[in-house]
Amino acid sequence: MNASIFLSKLKLLGFKSFPQKTELHFDKGMTAIVGPNGCGKTNLLDGIRWVLGEQRTSLLRSSKMEEVIFSGTKDLKPLGMAEVTLVIENNQGILPVDYNQVTVTRRLFRSGESEYLLNKTPCRLKDITELFLDTGVGIHAYSVIQPEMVEAILSDKAEERRFLFEEAAGITKYKHRKKEAERKLEHTENDLLRLGDILSEVEKQTNSLRRQKGKAERYKKLTEGIKDLEIKLSQNEFENLKEQVKELEEKLKVSADSAHKTSSDLDKEEAEIEELKLKLLQIEKESATLQKRVSELSERGFQVEREISVNRERRSNLEKLIAKNKEEKENLETRLSTVKIQKEEKKEKLSQVSKEIQSQKNACEREEQILLSNDEKLKKMKERIGKLSFDHQELNENLNKLKSEKGNTIAQIEELKQREIIFAREMQSIAQNTNDISKKLKNLTSVDEDRKRVLEGKIEESKLLKKKSEQNQSDLAQLSSEEANIKSLLEGEKAKLEMLRNISIHYEGYGEGEKSVLSAKEKLSGIIDTVANLITTKPEYLKAIESALGKALQFIVCQNEKSALDAIQYLKREEKGRATFLPLDKINAIKIDSPRIKLSDHPEAIGCASELVEREPDFKRIADQLLSTVILVETLDAALKLSSQIESGFHLVTLEGEVIKTEGGLSGGSPKRISLLGREMEIQRLDGQVSQLTQRLNKLEMEKKEKENKGEKLQKALSGISVETDEFTQQIQQSEIELKTLEFEKESMKKRNSELETLTQEIAQKIDELNQKTEEHNQNVKEFEDRKEKLSSITEEEKLMLERAETFHTETFKKVNQLKIELVSLQGKEEQIKNEETRLSELISEIENILSVKEKESENSAAEIEEISQTIKEIEKKLKETFQKIEEEKASLNSKAKEQAQWQESLTLREKNLKASRGAKEKVLDQLHQLEMEKMELSSQARGIKDKISEEYQMDLESLELLVSLKTEEMENLREKVNTLKERLKSIGAVNLLALEEFQSAKKRLDFLQDQVKDLTEAKQTLISTIAKINHTAQTLFTQTFEQIRGNFQKVFEELFDGGETELRLTESEDPLESPVQISARPYGKKLLNISQLSGGEKALTAIALLFAIYLVKPSPFCILDEVDAPLDDPNTTRFLKLIKHFSSNTQFILITHNKLTMEAADILYGVTMEQPGVSKIVSVRFDKHEVVAK
Fold first, then answer.
1. What is the rounded CA–CA span in Å between residue 640 and residue 608?
2. CA–CA dist 122, 113 (Å, integer)
3. 507: closest CA among 535, 537, 543, 532?
4. Which domains does the chain carry?
5. pLDDT digit string, tens, across residues 1108-1145
6. Mind spelling out the 3-state secondary structure of 8-44?
7. φ, ψ (nearest 5 deg) of residue 223
8. What is the pLDDT of residue 17?
9. 614: part of which helix (H) or strand (E)?
10. What share of the chain is helix, strand, coil (3-state, %, to 5)?
11. Local structure of residue 57 (DSSP, 8 states)
């Protein structure tokens, strides 16, 4: 075969109706796939489309992708995976891969996961699509043609029609490249816009920082001037205030003495007044007691009077109650006599009504008995009629059933005769097929045994290679994991090291003066380094040494005193702040006389700090001077304990950094995150750590590379063995399936032949039985019709009798209802009389009870009146005695009131004198308070001045020497000068002191962004040029190809239609790449028409003509046609097959068809059947060998 790409195999497993592994082999020429509708033959075409990457479920005839997985049947469970494999021969290397055979596989799992494989190697859908670009193979190309696709080719949708022309012209890849270039151009333009915005913002920021830089310099100069003036002014103000405080302290002493004497006199007078108040309070208490007794007696008198009045009222009420009860008794006795008479009348009336009720009940029972008797008769009559109706209906059903059975019997006889003929033909076919199968079984058994022996050797070799490969992969994974961990750790340590080095280089954490000196170290001679950089210690002592040294960590060590003075002059000259220097010549010359302590006597102490730091020998005296009086202890409690045991002059420092001075001071809190002392130690540690990690990483990379090379070799060997094993396994499986299928078919045929012989005999016997049954049916039908007529007559007579009985029943029922209504009325009347009688009995009883109660109440009231009269006499006697005692107590109370007035007059006079004394004391205290307030105000002012200078300039006014004493006028001038400078400072506005450094950073960023804009502009021009070149190339290719197709279309159309004329035209010639394609055709003997105006058959042949016209430009290696010949009649089919045969020398054709002519023309015929519902099966026939193989 001459085809450059050749489809050799299609394998399906679990795809749609193919649950078991199914394999189809294709060869040169034509292959036809046939089978009844619904057997699953189109699922083969769906499988090819799916494996080539089809994502549209509608074209796969599914609502969702999961439906391509076998969903199960009544006997088979659903599968969890679908797999389709397409094997393509690539002998001439047309496909861009280094393989002669290309295997494309697609899998889908029910979980939703999917994968593509190219020669059993996982790949992307994009890789599959790009593999077949411009080859005529693909989900959108003309390698798969269905009836709806033929319609789409010739439809009015420009994009569907144009795609074939673009594929033939080979410009699909150019369009892909153009889209990619346009996408990149769009991104580039967006980046340019974004960079433009950023660049504009950075330019504004840079210009702003340039202005801020000038402001910052002016601000700094003014600030230093203000500082000098304010310190000088504050010194003088501070001294003046201290003098004023001393003067006030003298005045306070005098005022305090005066206040003490006044207070003493006042206390004496207040004591005397208190004695008077106590005496007066005693008299008031006695008067109050007398007053209370008078009040109690008066209250008692009032109560007695009220009690007499209440008793008199009670006596009057009881007398009235006796008179009322007498009147009510007379009325109740009269009413009781009347009620008794009414009760007797009701009793007589009740007796009369009871008799009437009994009479009515008897009449009602007689009529109900008649009604009950009639109900029984009606029930029996209805039962007889119901039975007659049921018998009539049953007779009808039996009659119809007999007639139906008779018809069925005749039909069965005809059917059995037809089956006799069919079974005879089938038995003849089975005899021929059994002989053919026996020959095939013998050949296949021998081949299968040879293949199994070879396969066992391959499997053992594969197991050994797999074991080695798995061990290698495990080692490689472990190395990769370790490499990733080390890389992550290395990046983190490098980032920390870089950050700390940058901080160290820029002297972060140091004061302005220290930064300036260290930055100018190259200019200034004799500058060595800071204390923090010259000493180290163990990590556990780091916090303690840092706290002990404090600001001394920033002290700068220099060679000699001259170096220190030069650096100080530099700081003054450049206005760069202040710094503390430690000249080595001076430090070494000083004798350190530190207090001594024997640390062995104190177990709480760790050691002297100067002995716990590491330093160069040259800097020993520096460490001794700074740390010789510092002792390290474990905890704060230990420090507090030790501070009380040693002499003053030492500082105790805990490992957490708390400091206790033996003089009494304590300090502590939260330390800074990274200390100056710990910074250099951390840099050294990180430097060593990075070096170790880098060495380990290099070693791991070498080991990993060795493992990868070994893995590739093992995988290559394993892949080769796997391919060979798969091939042998597939061949053996195929042979076994074929053997089992043949054996099963042979046995099935044998059983079937036996069954057919038995069935033939049974059919002959059954026909005789059915003929005899037909005669019996005719006799039974006549007999049933006679019985039906007689039954209808009896039923009519019974219905007439029932109608008369129902009329009598209705009249009797109405009579009974009327009697019951009258009975209910009498019973209601009887119940009403009974209720009235009961009510009257209850009323008699109630009246008699009331009369008894009234009699008893009158007797009790008379006795109570006698008792109350006696009580009133006794109470009146007590009232007289009480009034006499009240008069006696009032006389005593008047006497006490006179005595109280005398003492009150004396107290008022003494209190007046006390008030005058208190006024004098308040005056003295006010004067004292005023002096104290003035002292506090002056002290506060002095403290405010001191705190202000300390806060703003970190200087202690008390420790500064007063160089010049200013007069008041001079101080005012200084204040005006400070205010003027501050106004100038204020006029500058907000100042960014970091503007100088920020300006340099912003300038670098601006330069970088400008370079980027330049690069992107150049890239944009390059992309525009590339798109223009792609457009030109694609347009040239498309125009040339379109002209070729136009000519080919005319030739193919003439061959199919025995003449005629076609026209292909681009409707928009200005842009051929986007113009719609118009198709017109004129079959022989007709006029030129648009394709939409042709008949169905003409449309199909025109589509085929266009397909082969495109094929002549760029032949498709294989073409699958799905019932494309369906609308063609026999003459057109013959022409179509002639054209297929013509092109089959270079193109492989696979046709799904129902057309007999197409089946006859095929070289290989595959049949698709569905013996088991929902499961498709393949049977193939190769006509040149005349053999049938079930797969």
1. 17
2. 13
3. 532
4. 1-142+1123-1191 (3.40.50.300), 502-678 (1.20.1060.20)
5. 787 777 666 788 888 888 877 888 888 888 888 887 87
6. EEEEEECECCECCCEEEECCCCEEEEECCCCCCHHHH
7. -60, -45
8. 92
9. strand 613-615
10. 70, 10, 20
11. T
Taking residues 29-34, what's their average pLDDT? 88
How far is 536 from 677, CA to CA, in rounded Å?
7
Smallest Cα–Cα separation from 22: which of 104, 82, 89? 82
Q: Which two tokens stand for residue 48?
A: 């090819």
pLDDT tens digits along 1034-1060: 888 888 888 888 888 888 888 777 788
CA gap 1014, 999 in Å, rounded:
23
Question: CA-CA distance, 117 to 107, in Å (whole number)?
Answer: 8
Name residue 1190's amino acid: A
Residues in the chain: 1191
E strands, 928-1071, in order: 1061-1066
> From the CA atom positions of the chain, what is the Rg in Å?
64
Residue 50: both structure tokens together: 């799916």
> What single letter denotes the amino acid at residue 1066?
L
H or E segment at 117?
strand 114-118
Q: What are the pLDDT digits (tens) for 89-125?
A: 888 778 888 888 899 999 999 988 999 999 989 999 8
CA distances from 1001 to 202, 807, 995, 997, 1005 (A): 11, 121, 10, 6, 6
Q: How far is CA 850 from the centre of its chain?
A: 86
Nearest to 641 by CA among 625, 657, 656, 660: 660
- pLDDT for 86 equals 93
Determine the pLDDT at residue 1: 41
- How many Å apart are CA 887 and CA 207, to the nearest integer? 110
Please tell me the distance from the alpha carbon of residue 229 to that of residue 349, in angstroms, as a whole number: 134
User: What is the identity of the amino acid at 133?
Assistant: L
Contact (Cβ atoms closer than 8 angstroms) between residue 1077 and residue 1138: no
Is the torsion defined by CA of 370, 371, 374, 380 positive or negative?
negative
Side-by-side strand order, sheet with 1148-1152:
144-145, 1118-1122, 1148-1152, 30-34, 1164-1172, 1175-1182, 1187-1190
Q: State both tokens at 930.
A: 């005023």
Q: Which two tokens stand for residue 692?
A: 């170790």
- Whether 935 contacts 252, CB under 8 Å: yes
In Å, the largest CA–CA distance within the chain is 162
DSSP state of 960: S
Q: Which has more confidence, 106 or 982?
A: 106
Strand partners for 1167? 34, 1179
In eight-state DSSP terms, residue 69 is: B
Q: Which residue has the tokens 């920021």?
A: 205
Do 102 and 119 contact (CB within 8 A), yes or no? Answer: yes
Q: Residue 37: is it exposed, middle or buried by C-beta count within 10 angstroms (0-12/13-18/19+)?
A: exposed
Give the phi and the psi of residue 772 in degrees, each rounded to 5: -65, -40
What are the distances in angstroms from CA 1180 to CA 445, 897, 1119?
20, 145, 19
- Burial readout 58-82 (b: 16 or more C-beta within 10 A, e: otherwise): ebbeeeebeebbbbeeeeeeebebb
Q: Is 182 exposed, middle or buried (0-12, 13-18, 19+ CB in 10 A)?
A: middle
pLDDT (tens digit, 9 = 90+) per residue, 824-853?
667 777 777 777 778 777 777 887 787 777
What single string gives the DSSP state of each residue in 616-653? -GGGHHHHHHHHTTEEEESSHHHHHHHHTTS-TT-EEE
Q: What's the burial of 1068, exposed, middle or buried (CB within 10 Å: 0-12/13-18/19+)?
A: exposed
